[in-house]
Amino acid sequence: MEVLLAIAILSGAALLAYVVGRLSRSRMLTGFIAFVAIAGSGYMVYQIWNVLQDGMPLGWPSAWAQTRLQSYLVANYLGIFLAGTALLLAALVAVYSMRYMHRRDIGKFYALLLLMTSGIVGVGFAGDLFTLYVLFEAMSIASFVLVAFEREEWEPIEAGVKYLVISTVGSLLALLGISIVFSWTGTLDLAALPSLLEAQVGSAQLMAVVALIIVGFGVKAAIVPMHTWLPDAHSAAPSGISAMLSGIVIEAGLITMLRALIALGTVNYGLLLVWLALVTMFVGNLIALRQSDLKRMFAYSSVAQMGYIIMGVGLALGYPTLAGFSGMRGALYHILNHAVMKGGAFLCAGAFLWILGTRDIRKLSGIGRKFPLMGICFLIFVLALAGAPPFNGWFSKVLIAKAGADVGGWGIFMVVMLVLNSVISLFYYLDALNTVVFGPIPEDRPRTLKPLPFLVVLPIVALAALSLLLGVLPDAGLVLVDPAAEYVASLIGGGVDVLVAAGVH
Amino acid sequence: MTAYAAAGLALVTIGLYATITRTNLLQIIIGLEIMARGISLVFILGGAQSGTMSAAQSVVITLILIEAVTVAIALSLVVAAYHHNKSLSIAALRRLKG
Question: What is the Cα A38 distance to its own chain's centre?
């Protein structure tokens, strides 16, 4: 029931936010409603955490509801991890957008933001493949509209059409895979599927479905070559939405893919994912090198960061041992870190866009010195993205690299490639940093610039502080990450026993 | 049964082919719809095969709903694109580069 409430609060508040936004046209009031709903959903997620910690069953209002609902939504630590990360970022984006969005149809904006968040919260808790698909689509559909929100411009329209068509083809292919599984087994229950499929279906047939799922949900997870929609969509969306898309939506796509893949059982596709990850990080980093648009550069950098995350996931799935398992911890931790640092980076880019009305890195030259607080935050986010201690991002990368080194063989090669990619990424991160913060201030820039509203600064500073905290005290994030990684390990078999034996638990 | 499965997969293939090869935005959206119908057919087939028709029905009805919403949004974007460009061709969607 708590799980259902965590999702229902958000989608219910979406209706309320729309009506209030429509009637009052007040950005503050609508944003406040969204913030309260997100906080309420967060409280429910905290309740789920408590219930799981105590080992008690979830509360249901009646036996009737329990028998009908309990297989659709299942409380688990992976869901708590995803929901916690999503709600944290969504709350800050809701605050940020109170002043940043300057449009009359603000109710629509917050309604869609809440709907998208409810989808993300849901995919972690979904108990069967079709529920997973429905919540995934709820997230996607809301994000299509949000990308194309400023529809008097051309750029959001083009990005929105591309995003919608590519993403819908992808999710339909994944759904085709799900429908084939259903025609084999007659059930879609994530928990029941692995044993049923193992008993009834050959591994070659299963591999075909695995391919459909990887291609289908891989579109949302920005696996190269299915990434082409991402740079357009992430740079054209309003900045708060860019932060949500890069920070959590593509990661939610990956977790959807992961949950569907695990349900398909024992076919070994881990190494396939590792190779896809390698291509993804190279393509993302190399194309990011030649971007002159700040948000577009961050968008390509998201592709590269997804490469790191998928590499961790692939290592854990390919080598289900303690060594490979460090990859899953690293990947999940990197999802949390990426939400903080890339979310912050996009909000920062949005603040610069608010001040100067441009996203061109050269034209932003020196803006970080004019607004020192923004400059410091930008520095923190960019260095965190580059993986420099003491900011977050380094610890999760080290965990992924450690997994590669420990499994040996191709894993060593992957670590070398990971390090090489980190070095490539330094070029564009440091170039952007050098220009935006330390560059010369152009002659033609007006002396007095628009001041930044407090509510735009606040979420950025909060994320920068969090980035520093997670970098200095990496163990703080592990509180959320470890149970989620253990849950995944318990699904891919044998993982938990290995962990307990090694004393990691 | 195999005939139905073949029909479903054929519909998906036709729809996918249409979305990839067509250059008119409306035809691409029609291609998406054809894919979704093919998948519905596979779900119904699965329900008939394993005796879980009620589950298959609820899945297909939900799927129709999701498709309707997606197509509504797609069409509204196409209308907006048409207002900007006076064209429905995807050749107009080439301005974003890099």
Answer: 17
B35 to chain A, any CB pair closer than 8 A? The answer is yes
- Please report the domains of chain B, with CATH numbers, ordered by start residue: 2-94 (1.10.287.3510)
> Which residue in A254, A232, A71 sits closest to A164, CA to CA?
A232
Q: Which amino acid is it at A215?
A: V
Any B CB within 8 A of A130 CB? yes
Domain limits of chain A? 1-125, 159-267, 269-505
Give this complex's ipTM: 0.96
Tokens coding A70? 């309990």
Per-residue model confidence (pLDDT) at position A151: 85
Q: Which of A154, A164, A169 is opposite residue B84, by nearest beta carbon?
A: A154
The C-alpha atoms of residue B1 and residue A227 are separated, in whole angstroms, by 37
Separation CA A106–CA A173 (nearest Å): 34
Model confidence, pTM: 0.94
pLDDT, one tens digit per residue, over B29-57 is 999 999 999 999 999 999 998 888 999 99
Preferred mutation among B43, B45, B50, B76 to probe A, highest tally of A CBs within 10 A: B43
Compute the average pLDDT of residues A173-185: 93
Q: Between chains, do A186 and B49 touch, taking CB under 8 Å as contact?
A: yes
Q: Does A150 touch chain B (CB under 8 A)?
A: no
